[in-house]
Amino acid sequence: MQERQIGDRMVSAVGLGEMPLSIEGRPDRTRAINTIHASLDAGVTIIDTADAYALNTEEHGHGERLVAKALATYGRSTDHILVATKGGHRRPGDGSWTVHGDPGYIKRACDLSLIALGVESIGLYQYHRPDPDVPYAESVGALADLLDAGKIQMAGISNATVAQIDEAQEVLGGRLVSVQNEFSPRFRSSEGELEHCESIGVAFIPWSPLGGIRQADRIALEFPAFAEVAAEVGTTPEQVTLAWMLAKGSRVIPIPGSSRPATATASAAAADLTLTDEQVARLDAA
Questions:
Q1: What is the rounded distance in angstroms from the CA atom of residue 68 to the CA atom of residue 83?
Q2: Strands (E) located in the chain
């Protein structure tokens, strides 16, 4: 599987988004762990989760604990696996999300994530979403403090604008390594952020790259060009979607979610699919 760079780490070009394994509609624990194992078997070396990937506040850390259990039971070395998690969100229990950008909250959330993951330092820790009630620089400043304290090895942000990317890079003293924004055939408003990350050498990590949970099969219906290219190269529209994203920049690392081993394996295979410039242009125009 081809690789991409995050900070000073090389990881698989396609990762695994853990969220479908922890929120509403999630599979049973055995299938969830088998899905993570299948992803690792396929060569995936970056798993994305968050403390708020859970059904409610009382269950916070569910996704992180699940990832920790999957890694502990894999049966082979997982030292090369980069686990990325996030802090700054909460789930009240009614399916909604609330934002919490207070620096003190972010630092406490990181401490709890360390416990949930069972590690002394988190590989990649990301500020989940801007809080309109807290100055952005203060929230990102918490990441700088966590880096200085050695509690996290790399820092990233999520759901950020170009201006916020630049502000975060300044606050972190050039130590910002990743930006995780929504990006898919259906949601392309983060194209500017993708291009900006490429220009400054920061990894761009599209979340919901296939359109969201249980929406992947709609790509062919809503965007026929992806189905046409899939027929040309002998693969699926979903795999073409991931390959298209990889072709858009050398720092792009999509993290499709999976709830079954088969889909995790199929997504990973997209990392080695090559599209022509003409095919990429057609998909860009779709």
A1: 9
A2: 3-6, 9-12, 16-17, 46-48, 82-87, 89-90, 98-99, 124-127, 155-158, 176-180, 203-204
Tell me if 123 sits within 8 A of 154, measured CB to CB.
yes
Residues near 67 by Cβ (< 8 Å), separated by ≥ 6? Answer: 18, 36, 47, 49, 83, 117
Is residue 189 packed enough to be buried (19+ CB in 10 Å), middle (13-18) or exposed (0-12)?
exposed
Catalytic residue numbers? Answer: 53
Rounded to a whole number of angstroms, the CA Rg of the chain reads 18
DSSP class of residue 182 equals B
Sheet holding 176-180, edge to edge: 16-17, 46-48, 82-87, 124-127, 155-158, 176-180, 203-204
Q: Yes or no: say if 52 and 60 are a contact pair by the CB < 8 Å rule.
A: yes
Question: What is the pTM for the complete model shown?
Answer: 0.96
- The one-letter amino acid code at 160 reads A
Q: How many CB atoms lie within 10 A of CB 99?
A: 18
pLDDT band at 99 (very low <50, low <70, confident <90, very high): very high
Among 16-30, 150-164, 216-230, whose mean pLDDT is lowest?
A: 216-230
Amino acid at residue number 84: A
Alpha-carbon distances, residue 9 vs 46, 47, 99, 123, 131 (angstroms): 10, 14, 29, 10, 29
Q: Kindly state the DSSP code that residue 59 receives in the 8-state scheme.
A: G
Record: fold of 3-217+242-273: TIM Barrel (3.20.20)
Q: H or E segment at 171? A: helix 162-171
Asked if pLDDT for residue 212 goes beyond 90, the answer is no
The structural domains of the chain, with segments of one domain joined by +, span 3-217+242-273
